[in-house]
## 1
Amino acid sequence: MLVLGIETTCDETSCAVVKDGYEILSNVISSQIDLHKEFGGVVPELACRRHIDVIAPVYMESLKLANVTLDDIDRIAVAKGPGLIGALLIGLHFAKSLAWCRNIPLVGVNHIEAHLYAALMSHSPPPLLPALGVVLSGGHTSLVHMEGVGKYKLLAETIDDAIGEAFDKAAKMLGLAYPGGPYIEAKAKQGDPSRFSFKAGKVKGRPLDFSFSGIKTSVLYTIRDLPKPLSEQDICDIAASFQEAVFHDVLAKIQLALKSGDKKAIYLGGGVTQNRRLRTLLEEKLTLPIFWPRADLCLDNAAMIAGLGFHEKPVLGYALEPETRIPFVA
Ligand code: KG4
Ligand code: ZN
């Protein structure tokens, strides 16, 4: 089955063609980083205008690279949320129009679940289950018990900032560009992770849950108390200390979640999984097999939407509404 995937939840416009849930025939991604950089974050109005400008060419390119036409497509999968409302509407309406004009079944996909599916589709099936699923993205930080595709039990979430959001905010305070994650990683390489003793938050009575707003404030106070302008070494040391504290918190919570002893593997997804330090730390400290997304499937992309869409039931008619906030496990 050939699935056309469409992704417009935030600041990437992407279309992809995927065969039988795993084989990626094309995955075209048009990033808007250049557009939002000068504002230090995503400006929704600008994001929507860019989605409108590029969605048709991105779609046509995805068919061309896959060497197919719309007549070959058996199903259309679109990210229905979570995301920016205007951005979601553009993807949804584009998907509905294509589906309606050729009578193609339409599927609405949860973007966060698709980040986890990206790890599954990066490795040959069948997946090693049950597993621990870990989503580390700009908007979400979740741990789930995975029994299969679409079968999850939520174990933990963040109670405030998402992990990628914390990276982006810390980077902004350090005067680094948007999105901050890759810049923090680069500076951390030259820094001393033991110079500042940052700690991620603990949530009373919920040992697995995440909290990153406190560490963000610690970064702010540390910067406030240092001579200005910050030296390059100060920036690198703060970046390294921050990154190390956040990733040790992720490691500790994964270790705690694995204590139940019923999981055979760990699947990770989301933009933060691009970070090499995170990968080395988890590979060093964890003994279960770890499955990471391929480099091109870490950030927002339509291949993961098409891949997951293969496993889901089409909606009746074209009744599909955007959902700006969706719980990971419905
Ligand atoms: O998953 P994603 O594309 O977007 C959401 O669905 O939210 O993730 C984007 C996030 C941003 O916060 C970005 O700073 C972070 O992933 N990120 C990183 C790295 N590359 C991207 N964080 C840490 N280290 C990186 N190398
Ligand atoms: Zn995402």
Note: Residues 122 and 293 are 6 Å apart (CA to CA).
## 2
Amino acid sequence: MDDIDYSQFPELGEVLVSKDVLHQTVQSLGRRIANDYTDRRPLLVCVLKGAFVFMADLARAIPFSVEVDFMAVSSYGASTTSSGVVRIVKDLDADISNRHVILVEDIVDSGLTMNYVRDLLLARGPASLEVCALLVRETVPHVDLTSLRYLGLTIPDDWVVGYGLDTDQRWRNLRDIRRWNVVDETPR
Ligand code: IMP
Ligand code: MG
């Protein structure tokens, strides 16, 4: 992927977050979590699919054993804007009651998905629940940012791909995060 010829892919715009900045950001989030959870064993919950790359790096940035689990949700309806009502496509394997859960999200956009998933997990009686999001939009209408304990970077209101984030399931495997250009193209 380092040798990718970007001129072949006009849909990939400029780098908004480089892989070096991603690395530093994830290391620093890992250190903060490690400091806060010295006497607790966290369960990292990945919201698929977008958070899978971030969580893989985050888990390895924490210098003690953590457990991981995965859930997948999708917004109801085909609208591109989040409806705020999400359906569980894949539920957790773990029973989270009395566990110290960290919900790991790729990006908080409107915040509706995060709020919904957080309420759903809270109803299962975890010992504690915090949210760790790699990205948040500059303008987040629905989120009280104090509820977002671990936050990586703030980005502008552009659609982005890479490092787990997709457009139509594509380009999750980019090492950095790039602006997505809408181009007239036939599907590859
Ligand atoms: P929200 O409910 O509006 O906060 O939507 C959050 C979800 O939308 C994220 O978990 C992502 O999967 C997706 N999303 C939001 N913005 C982007 C983006 O710029 N690129 C890729 N996915 C995005
Ligand atoms: Mg997505």
Note: The pocket of inosinic acid (ligand 1) is lined by residues 50, 82, 105-114, 159-160, 165-166 (CB under 6 Å).
## 3
Amino acid sequence: MLGDHCRVLSNVVSSSVEFHRRYGGIVPEIASRKQVELIGPALAQAMEQAGVGFGDLDAVAVTAGPGLVGSLVVGMCAAKAIAFARGIVLLGVNHLEAHIYANWIESRSLGDDAPLKPTVPCLVLIVSGGHSDLVLMKDHLQYDLLGRTRDDAAGEAFDKGARLLGLPYPGGAALDELARTGDPAAVAFPRARVPGSWDFSFSGVKTALARYLERGPSLALGIALPTSGGDILSAAKGGAAAAPADIAASYQEAIVATLVEKTLDAAREFGVPRVLLAGGVACNSRLRQVFAERADRAGLLVAAPPPGLCTDNAAMIACAGWFLLRAGVRSPMDMDVSASLALTSRAPA
Ligand code: KG4
Ligand code: ZN
């Protein structure tokens, strides 16, 4: 730890994604079984790479939720065993607060790629496979949830869209890649505004893509798409069928535009000059590009961790754990996991 910043000694990511790919999504049973197999070797590798022994540790941080309960239990059991055996502090971390705190390991301004030391207050956009949350952080470990998705998360919209386009799971990165050579204005997919709230909605754009691919562009014109509480700015327009790269770029553009508009509006409304991105979708190249362009014009600073710290990783859990430790938070040894754990502020010690 360096002042307000964490230094990573090791960050081992053991993934079971190749076992899920053939099913087109995560199979919870496979995930937890693989985790039981992989956690011991991953732990040993992380300790070796860091060059530390268990006796050097002051605390062990672990994800308490939200997530797949079987996977959470495996991590929690391992962390409790270490804390109990070494008599050290156990810290239950919320997965979303860990995504936020990845910015305190390393974050760069999207405009000029300059390293940034994040400070509070700030606005955070968390975009992952399960969440699209706008969080106002007035202080460390204090979270005001301004808005969230009413249906699909942004990452889910990317993954489902990619699947419809025939790309392998998880499709977010593949769709991003395909879209690089496409025209984002080729197909005007709908953008749900969800007026009067800071919430998002992505099920409408996903349905529009499915209709577009099923019926062809001319029939996509009539889709009404009454997304939950949202109004539709535009519907897919008719004409000749677009190329896959154009469809991917247009679909991505609808998701990105919605995320950027709402986030920058919220930053203005709440008077926060800094915006941090977090979660796997923060890797998206177009999201980063549009944020960079728009933030510059709006006089705001938008920053994000490098891609490897945006997607799920252990270092972000440890970094959030450090901020909890510093604030005097201690978790009990009978702490449970929660599949739907809400992001709540931590009481000052
Ligand atoms: O944060 P994360 O690693 O796991 C969750 O907590 O869900 O996020 C995973 C999500 C997946 O939906 C994945 O497709 C998406 O992040 N993702 C991307 C990109 N890279 C990962 N989505 C769009 N563009 C990308 N480049
Ligand atoms: Zn995540």
Note: Residues 1-106+311-349 form a domain with the Nucleotidyltransferase; domain 5 fold (CATH 3.30.420.40).
## 4
Amino acid sequence: MSTTWHILGAGSLGTLWATRLARAGVPVRLILRDQARLASYASGEGLTLVEQGIARTYRVTGETPDSPEPIHRLLVACKAYDAPGAVAQLQHRLGPDAELILLQNGLGSQDAVAAQLPQARCIFASSTEGAFRDGDWRVVFAGHGYTWLGDAARPTAPLWLEDLQAAAIPHEWSTDILTRLWRKLALNCAINPLTVLYQCRNGGLQAHQCEVATLCAELTELLEWCGQPAAALDLHGEVQRVIQATAANYSSMYQDVANARRTEISYLLGYACQAAARHRRVLPHLQQVQARLVELLVARRLPRD
Ligand code: NAP
């Protein structure tokens, strides 16, 4: 019997992983916020995954952070701003052999979690899969993609990747996971904030090419200062290709703001601006975009961080 996967956060990605693992017969338990969420979950049939229009429900056992069972493998599927606090609640259940898989976008939250648990192995992930909730305990698999997993401190791949194979979760072990996360952060910083400021789909940025190019030049410099030259290679070219290929899409940050949800700005643009400050450098355009974005968030009564 393989080790149980505890999944922290029954949101879009947490449910996408939990249902596919459960479907493959891998033992899974879902950790919900509190008794109220557990009661709501327990009153239903389980977790529903909608794939190509077909909905299937899987019975996955739910529990709260207070459950006594020790945790050996934890998939952290909260938003970046919730991850350190949510993991801290489970600290007493995590043994020295615990492994955590951190699915958060951006950078900063992974290091915060790892610093809380110096003995545990923290595996960072970067995913291009897409999912959204269309109801409580129900998720739509919206975009097939790939998940890269890696551990900058220990490059050996864990044996449990075979669970992901069995669950048909497309993945690859990466020996340069930080480069991947930095690259994704830079792409996000060049596109997402501008789509919020101009209230447009990704393709709408074709009308703001100069601004995109200036941001890419600053981000390229930043990646080089931060020791990430591989993540900087042809950044502007890839940003242009992404804008074209996803012209009809609304960025995740645009959707968060449109739905009055907190953004992950502190782990994306905020992290980039802080990294520049740590190197005592000024990136005027990036900082200006951050200031404009914060102003917009405050005007909409959304958290500024
Ligand atoms: P989400 O749908 O908002 O799910 C987050 C879940 O975490 C929610 O169910 C929330 O509970 C739960 N949570 C928060 N604090 C908790 C706590 N203390 N204890 C237990 N559960 C807690 O978010 P998501 O879209 O899956 O995103 C997760 C991360 O993956 C983000 O960093 C995101 O950027 C990244 N990502 C997402 C996608 C995607 O397509 N969705 C793709 C790539 C990367 P409640 O339900 O009670 O609020």
Note: The mean pLDDT is 97.
